[in-house]
Recover the amino acids of this structure.
């Protein structure tokens, strides 16, 4: 067997045994180096260090900590109160509020499951009190949470930009239009389902009045200013994405402690633990995938894959749809960051050779991984929402099917119209 065959077979066997992603990659790489005798064993610790010594990775745990602090600091509730003023009394008003709140909170946390937890904890019980079914409440919250990885800041976008040697700011900028497109399609789906099932808005919500809205905006001014502070620091050139993640923590502490006076020491401790857990998991996968990626590169795996795919079709659009189909399947079994970390080093050379814009491909990769969050057995958003709504994952998996169809429709649009992803970063000069 060739070293490449040994590596892929060993990794596949480790996955079948149920080993964690980082362990499967490490064992497959070590086995290949020993059995294949292709590279010196010293490459192992060098590659692991190279994978960990990446400065932009610091943004991920910092954004997670900031998002958790904002949840405990009552910032999420203030955002929800403002959104309810706008759409609370329409058909499916609380469902639409959930998606809009997820869209707003996505500009803070960068995490899909984190967005579901922050918004769903407040709005799923509210929907149940207003006569919405558990299926509707849980499905709209888990689906709205997928926007968390598309609208910047986005942890998967940070990883993709690092692996693809792209500007993190360019990827963040590229996510705005696709993010709002997905949000609009999700809102339309939630409204249609509510209309079909007769789910009214929030019966306790007052009729829309500009005065009441302005009062809510005044009370939640610091909460509403949060995404503008974070993203504004990046696009104004005041801070890099990593520095902006630290700004997010400082701002969340300021608002949570001094303005809302809701943050306690145990909340700060929980936020730091959450950030540490995410950081540890990401670093383990990135380090081992860097080692495994060097073996694949040495064995010319990207070139072989390119030749195989181009033997089927050289049409960029068809190739993109082939990749999307593969991602749909992989997403059922692999976590989003793991999928990106493993596939990007292999797929990106082929994408570049076909003339596909790497920013466009990055958006397709991220938005397709939205689907992975809603597909069992791994769908992380499903587990978070099902726990909040006390609904089985099996029933919730059926309830999210309309949103999966809506997401697929959005993916098709974004694939066929690359300008939706590339126009903004190139216009603002970030994609050059």
């Amino acid at each position: 067997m060739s070293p490449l065959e040994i590596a892929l077979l060993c990794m596949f066997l480790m996955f079948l045994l149920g080993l964690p992603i980082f362990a499967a990659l490490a064992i497959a790489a070590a086995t290949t180096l020993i059995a294949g005798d292709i590279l010196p064993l010293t490459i192992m610790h060098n590659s692991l260090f190279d994978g960990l010594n990446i400065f932009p990775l610091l943004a991920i745990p910092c954004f997670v900590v900031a998002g958790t602090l904002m949840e405990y600091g009552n910032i999420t509730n203030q955002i929800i109160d403002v959104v309810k003023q706008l759409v609370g009394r329409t058909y499916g008003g609380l469902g639409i509020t959930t998606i809009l709140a997820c869209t707003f909170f996505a500009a803070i946390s960068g995490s899909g499951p984190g967005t579901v937890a922050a918004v769903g904890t407040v709005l799923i019980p509210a929907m149940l009190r207003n006569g919405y079914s558990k299926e509707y409440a849980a499905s709209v919250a888990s689906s709205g949470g997928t926007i968390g990885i598309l609208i910047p800041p986005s942890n998967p976008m940070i990883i993709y930009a690092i692996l693809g040697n792209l500007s993190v700011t360019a990827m963040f900028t590229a996510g705005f239009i696709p993010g709002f497109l997905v949000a609009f399609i999700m809102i339309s789906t939630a409204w249609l389902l509510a209309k079909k099932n007769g789910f009214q808005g929030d019966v306790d919500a007052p009729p829309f009045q500009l005065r009441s809205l302005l009062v809510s905006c005044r009370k939640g001014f610091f909460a509403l200013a949060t995404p503008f502070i974070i993203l504004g620091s990046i696009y104004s050139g005041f801070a890099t994405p990593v520095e902006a993640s630290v700004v997010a923590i400082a701002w969340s502490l300021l608002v949570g402690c001094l303005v809302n006076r809701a943050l306690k020491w145990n909340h700060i401790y929980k936020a730091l633990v959450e950030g540490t857990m995410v950081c540890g998991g990401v670093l383990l996968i990135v380090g081992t995938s860097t080692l495994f990626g060097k073996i694949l590169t040495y064995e010319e795996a990207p070139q072989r894959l390119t030749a195989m795919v181009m033997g089927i079709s050289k049409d960029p659009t068809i190739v993109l749809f082939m990749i999307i189909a593969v991602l749909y399947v992989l997403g059922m079994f692999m976590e989003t960051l793991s999928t990106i970390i493993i596939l990007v080093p292999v797929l990106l050379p082929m994408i570049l050779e076909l003339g596909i814009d790497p920013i466009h491909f990055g958006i397709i990769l991220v938005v397709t991984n939205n689907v992975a969050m809603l597909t069992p057995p791994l769908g992380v958003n499903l587990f978070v929402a099902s726990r909040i709504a006390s609904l089985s994952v099996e029933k919730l998996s059926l309830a999210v099917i309309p949103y999966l169809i809506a997401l697929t429709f959005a993916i098709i649009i974004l694939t066929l119209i690359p300008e939706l992803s590339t126009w903004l970063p190139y216009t603002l000069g970030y994609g050059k």
In short: The mean pLDDT is 82.
